[in-house]
Amino acid sequence: MKKIQLENTEFYLIALIEHQSEADADMSFRLLRYMVYVWTDYAATQEKLHPGITKSKDFLYPPILPIIYYEGTGQWTSALHFNKS
């Protein structure tokens, strides 16, 4: 997690890195699940610091950059997207 200052605004950028040695057909959904866990924890933490903040229209969740680091011997054969179109 990295806190970034741009002009007068502070925000967090979270990199989620998953190391894989085999193709995993459930990987894209697992990453989504991890992201939801992070956002849920972030919201709970912010609520403790500033009660009611998550109900504000100005409340923003931090962006998460999901990365799969694959070093298997074969080609990655699992889906790259939720939607194949």
How does this structure look, described?
This protein has 85 residues and is of the alpha+beta class. It has one domain. Helix content is 27%, strand content 28%. It has one helix at 27-49, and strands spanning 2-6, 9-20, 64-70. A 3-stranded mixed beta sheet has the order 1-2-3, with helices on one face. A hairpin with a 2-residue loop joins strand 1 (2-6) and strand 2. It is elongated.
Report a brief summary of the structure.
With 85 residues, the chain is α+β, with helices and mostly antiparallel strands.
Task: Present the secondary structure layout.
Layout: E1 2-6, E2 9-20, H1 27-49, E3 64-70
Parallel strand pairs: 2-3
Antiparallel strand pairs: 1-2
Q: Identify low-pLDDT runs.
A: none
Distance between the termini: 32 Å
The helix count comes to 1
Which sequence of SSEs, written as H and E, runs from N to C? EEHE
Q: Share of helix among residues?
A: 25-40%
Number of individual domains: 1
Major sheet size, sense and barrel closure: 3 strands, mixed
Approximately what portion of the residues adopt beta-strand conformation?
Answer: 25-35%
Q: Which structural traits does this protein have?
A:
three-stranded mixed beta sheet
